[in-house]
Amino acid sequence: MRAVVAVDTGKVGLAEVDEVRPGEGELVIEVAAFSINRGETFQLEQPRAGWRPGKDVAGRVLEAAEDGPPVGSRVVAHLPHSGWAERVIAPATQVAVLPDDISFEQAAALPLAGLTALRLLRTAGSVIGRRILLTGASGGVGHYFTELAAGAGAVVTAVVSSPARGARLLELGAQDLVYDVADARGPFDLVLESVGGESLPIALSKLAPGGDLIWFGQVSRQPVTLDFFDFFTAPEAARIRHFHYVHGPDDQDLATLVRLVSAGRLHPELGRVEDWSMTDAVLDDLRNRRIRGNAVLTLHQEAPLMNDPKTVVTRYVEAVAAGDLPTIRASFAPDVVWTYPGDLPLSGDWKGRDMVVDEFLGAAAGNLFAPGTPVAIELVNVIADGEQVFAEWTAQATARAGGAYSNKCGGVFTVRDGLIVAVREYLDTDHARRVLFPDEPML
Questions:
Q1: Confidence at residue 325, expressed as pLDDT on a 0 to 100 scale
Q2: Which of 12, 100, 143, 418 is deepest in the core (most CB within 10 A)?
Q3: Distances from the Cα of 117 to the Cα of 134, 139, 194, angstroms
């Protein structure tokens, strides 16, 4: 599959990477959109070996986890890394289901920025009537926090670099804009500081006695210097709290964000939406502060994924014909059983998705045909009755021994919850024996 990888200091490009394999409690998502966070631009400057960027994604479930949403569900996910790819794995505890009224682009802009804003508000406690100073306010976190806090009764002053970067914050409920933190007119009950460097001490000086400063970022990349004696002036007895947005499972908070967006109480700010082939250019614009709000990259146009049994089987056989291994794998339940007829070396029950895909359909069957030659599969007919589907297809190839293989095959598929759970295959086993197993004795 393809993914965005680091190719040079701060630069990225598309490359082929290993297909994802979910573990226990994990699901596979076909990514439709992902967003870029400023922290990822920092990590790309000195990427760790084996690390790929990507925390915020939205898409459809290809393989379900035991306690997660079913195959075909529209979801948003918050990942530790590696989200800028065609497919990703995600713990079920990091995923929330999306209603149809939220686009994948909107959803991709939610996780990190939305979770940070939501948890900042919780950390602050009741904000009704409180005066709040928010620095670095024009990014995704600033937009979300301003709308949530203003909606909860706070009086928000936002620090931005220009009127253009602050206009939307006024629409979301900010009471006032300033373009330099030194110009903010306190005192404030609460300061949320994300710039660092010289900004934090100045913002601290704007606190009322006994007020709180919550330090949740340092986008300036500059260290902070504090003077103990400054606390005896305006911010006497002030408290500084370090904040980190990570708090274990995210599914419930993601669901809260989704509910707020669906209800019209939270609005993702899509500052830029581009095809993922433009990721490197968007990263450059984000670093140079040419994007307000969230930067989102898209992989696929939104389209409903049909999971009725007939469609699932049709999609599977067509994927076999096309050599589409990810779709082949995603078609099967983890405990699928494929029964192959007769008394050939392939005959018997093949149990489990990995055995069916990697051993039966992959190594075992693949070794029967001449290397480098195609296996032509053509779907002839599909008949469905409830969860039972009968499919007919033809298979033509050149056997490893050189003979022409041409067989008519049929299969009874059992499909539940959008996944194939059992297959009983039927074919001309005498032809298969003569052409594919010429050295096997006739019984």
A1: 78
A2: 143
A3: 11, 11, 12
CA-nearest of 387, 423, 329 to 63 is 329
∠423-429-432 over CA atoms, to 5°? Answer: 105
pLDDT, one tens digit per residue, over 382-397 is: 999 999 999 999 999 9
β partners of residue 443: none
Q: CA torsion, points 56, 58, 64, 67, in degrees to nearest 10?
A: 60
Question: How many Cα atoms are found within 13 Å in the side-chain-facing hemisphere of 158?
Answer: 32
Residue ranges of the alpha helices (H) in 59-183? Answer: 104-108, 111-124, 140-151, 163-171
CB 47 within 8 A of CB 84: no
Q: What is the pLDDT of residues 130-149, one digit of tens each?
A: 999 999 888 889 999 999 99
Give how far Cα 311 sits from Cα of 64, 195, 300, 314, 343, Å. Answer: 18, 52, 20, 5, 31
Query: What are phi and psi for residue 193, nearest 5 degrees?
Result: -120, 125
> Across the strands, what pairs with 407?
395
Q: Which amino acid is at 217?
A: G
Which of these, 411, 394, 272, 414, lies nearest to 335 by C-alpha position? 414
Upstream peptide bond of 80 is cis (omega within 30 degrees of 0): no
Whole-number Å distance between alpha carbons of 116 and 122: 10
- C-alpha 163/C-alpha 202 separation (Å) is 21
